[in-house]
Sequence to fold (117 residues):
Amino acid sequence: MKKSSGTKDYHFFEDVFDVVRQVPKGRVTTYGTIAAYLGTKLSARMVGWAMNASHSAKPKVPAQRVVNRNGMLTGKMHFASPTEMEEKLRKEGIEVKNDTVVNFKEKFWDPAIELSI
DNA sequence: GCATTGACGAAGG
DNA sequence: CCCTTCGCCAATG
Fold:
């Protein structure tokens, strides 16, 4: 085995991926919320950075369900196509207008609550 | 090894 | 109300 050296591989990315994968279809969450759930609420940027690595994560992470605190699809430009994120969200029943999730408040999914039952 | 950037967020001017 | 600055931490140049 390996692993040697053990130590703590802070799998911060994996933690983020795991949470995002648990986001139910038709729901969305935010970077800050995920960060807060992982205990790094002050580092919402790290969540976004982790998403950037999600392209290599398997199974693929539904990063399209992750938006900023305004419900805006800030990360759509990082997908294969800038419209892919919006299209995927629409297919899941999420209405997107002006690069922003409509009724975002209602679609919002909080792991700290849903996973804390 | 220091400087810049980044899919955020909250606060200040 | 819009724009700017700071904070956070990791990756990249």
Q: What stands out?
A: The CA atoms of residues 77 and 91 of chain A lie 18 Å apart. Chain A has six helices and four strands. The domain at 9-108 of chain A is CATH 1.10.10.10 (Arc Repressor Mutant, subunit A).
